[in-house]
Write a structure and sequence with these properties.
Blueprint lengths: L6 H8 L18 H5 L6 H18 L6 H16 L6 H14 L6 H16 L11
Helix pairs in contact: 3-4, 3-6, 4-5, 5-6
C-alpha cells in the first residue's frame, strides 16, 4: 500500500543535526567570553549565573548522564558553605566536578567543556581574594 511522505519531514529526519531535535531538546549554550570574564564571582548573583551556565553546557553535551547534576549540586552547596565561613568542602567538590568534566571532553565539545572548567575555577578561587583587596 502506498504511503504519503511529506518532504520536509523526510529531509528533517535525514539531516544529522536536526533529525532528533524537539522543543524539549536542550539548546546549544550561548557563551560569550566577554560576559563570563567581566563578572565578579564573589557576588551571589554572578555565582548563580555561572552555575546556570555550567548546567546549560552540561545539559547540552552530557544529557545522557545522571552523575553531573549531583556533582554540580554538591559544588553549589560547597560554595554556599564557603560564603558562610566553612571552606573545607570547596576544593574537593570542585575537583570532583572538574575531573568528571575532563573525562567527558571530546574534540567536538572541548571548547564548551573548557568553559565549564574555567567557570568552576573562577568560582573556586574568587573567595580567596575577598579579604586581600584594599578599598581605602
Amino acid at each position: 500500500m502506498a504511503q504519503i511522505v511529506h518532504l520536509d519531514d523526510h529531509r528533517r529526519m535525514r539531516e544529522p543535526g536536526q533529525g532528533m531535535a524537539t522543543n524539549l531538546s536542550p539548546k546549544r549554550p550561548r557563551l560569550s567570553d566577554r560576559d563570563l570574564w567581566t563578572r565578579d564571582y564573589r557576588q551571589t548573583d554572578n555565582i548563580l549565573y555561572a552555575i546556570m551556565k555550567i548546567k546549560e553546557i552540561l545539559d547540552y553535551h552530557l544529557y545522557y548522564d545522571d552523575v553531573w547534576p549531583y556533582l554540580l549540586l554538591s559544588f553549589l552547596e560547597a560554595v554556599h558553605n564557603t560564603k558562610q565561613g566553612d571552606a573545607r568542602e570547596l576544593p574537593g567538590t570542585g575537583a570532583s566536578l572538574k575531573d568528571y568534566v575532563l573525562s567527558a571532553v571530546t574534540p567536538v565539545n572541548k571548547r564548551d567543556l573548557s568553559m565549564v572548567l574555567l567557570l568552576t575555577d573562577l568560582i573556586e578561587k574568587s573567595p580567596h581574594y575577598r579579604g586581600s583587596s584594599s578599598s581605602s
